[in-house]
Amino acid sequence: EAQVTQNPRYLITVTGKKLTVTCSQNMNHEYMSWYRQDPGLGLRQIYYSMNVEVTDKGDVPEGYKVSRKEKRNFPLILESPSPNQTSLYFCASSWDRDAGYTFGSGTRLTVV
Amino acid sequence: EDQVTQSPEALRLQEGESSSLNCSYTVSGLRGLFWYRQDPGKGPEFLFTLYSAGEEKEKERLKATLTKKESFLHITAPKPEDSATYLCAVRMGAQKLVFGQGTRLTINP
């Protein structure tokens, strides 16, 4: 089944403890992206990638890092999480920038 | 400032009662407008891409249209299973996407 897989689905962590949210797609898509979704603010783009080793900032990149060493994987790294990074995170991929993205099921992160 | 605004925030309809959702945008260099559907607890699901004023796309009971400043998602004779949050997004540049806040649609049987 064609899909975008994020792990974990739920995570509660403490301020300052580094964490990684993994994202993997099995569709050989070139384009991948990370979003956070917050009530009243909607979906906001954190980072995107157009191919291996090619990444760029979205609207809210502060406090996040990404890497794209392989086509299928696009992990989101929080080096020192803070409570304002508590959110619902989505990874997404697309074979073409005009084709629309396939989204993962989301990761609900709570930073206390 | 690039902005995407959706209205209304929430809409409640009776089954079979047609209506339209609005997405207005103020962006420089529109490269495409996207509509997504999002069910509670799930990621958005892609519906349509529109590129130029006058373009229309249809899928079952949904039809999306685009003008120079806004897009409409028309829902004809909706059913309860059409209940969801509908999101529009505008692409600017290579891959920058700006989403609206969504319209939460409820269809009562």
Characteristic key phrases:
heterodimer, A: 112 residues, mainly beta, seven-stranded mixed beta sheet, four-stranded antiparallel beta sheet, 11 strands, 0% helix, globular, B: 109 residues, six-stranded mixed beta sheet, five-stranded antiparallel beta sheet
Tally of separate helices of chain B? 0
The outline of chain A comes out as: globular
> Over the alpha carbons, how many angstroms does the gyration radius of chain A reach?
13 Å
| Spatial separation of the terminal alpha carbons of chain B | 41 Å
Brief write-up:
The complex is a heterodimer of chains A (112) and B (109). Chain A has 112 residues and is mainly beta. Chain A is built from no helices and eleven strands.
What features would you describe in this structure?
The complex is a heterodimer of chains A (112) and B (109). Chain A is an all-beta fold and 112 residues long. Helices cover 0% and strands 51% of the residues of chain A. In chain A, strands 2, 4, 5, 6, 9, 10 and 11 form a seven-stranded mixed β-sheet that branches. A four-stranded antiparallel β-sheet of chain A has the order 1-3-8-7, with no helix packed on it. Chain A is globular and about 35 Å long. Chain B has strands at residues 3-7, 10-14, 19-26, 30-38, 45-50, 56-59, 62-66, 70-75, 84-92, 96-99, 103-108. In chain B, strands 2, 4, 5, 9, 10 and 11 form a six-stranded mixed β-sheet that branches. With 109 residues, chain B is mainly β. Helices cover 0% and strands 61% of the residues of chain B. The A-B interface holds A 4, 31, 33, 35, 40-45, 48, 50, 56, 58-59, 90, 92, 97-106 and B 31-32, 34, 36, 41-49, 51, 87, 89, 91, 94-102.
